[in-house]
Amino acid sequence: MKVICVGRNYAEHAKELNNAVPDKPLLFFKPDSAVLRENKDFYYPEFTQNLHFECELVIRIGKEGKHIPEAFVRNYIDGIGLGIDMTARDLQDEAKAKGLPWTLAKGFNDSAPVSEFLPLEDFPNLQDIRFRCDINGQIRQQGHSADMIFPVGNLIAYITRFITLKKGDFVFTGTPSGVGPLQIGDHIQASIEGKQLLDFHVR
Ligand code: MG
Question: pTM surpassing 0.90?
Answer without folding.
Answer: yes
